[in-house]
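Interim report to the steering committee. The following record documents the input for Serine/threonine protein kinase (175 residues).
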Amino acid sequence: MDAPSPETCVGCGAVLPRVEGPVHRYMTSSPACWAAFNVLGSTRYSLADVPFEALLVDAYAVQHPGTPSNQAINSVAIHLMVLYGVIVRGYAPDQAQRLRQRPGQQRRVPKHERFFWLTPPSFASVLTVADVLSAADVQARADVAEAWVRDVWSVWAQLHEGQVAAWFAAYMAFE
């Protein structure tokens, strides 16, 4: 039996063996990349004791931003603010869930009027979920996972850190 042909993820550029299957409803990815992300959360590849594990969903979401729609715009903005909060502002990774919930608590501005589309960066030469999964052991996966999160934030920050910081100040800061 022949091995599946390779497929390049339209979101992050990872090259993975082609699979048939679902994709996220508003993030742009190949079925293989979406499946790889879901495997990352399985007990087989558990990173539950790794500090940056809480940020994997944020890295994946902003590396697969979708196309301009209210849901994609809000998703990217919130996930970028979480990465900014942890990587730049120094919040603990275990506060990621709390940070993700903050914009929903703001009622002054309607939810779909708070954020706008940010042009995504190029993800060429950026780590992907495939790199995390291909790491040799749990410690290597943990190291690559943290590097992936930081790498994804870095390319977005080059283009949009000022805007993300402004949104964070308006909707997420809770000192």
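The longest strand covers residues 6-8. The committee is asked to note this result when reviewing the revised timeline.
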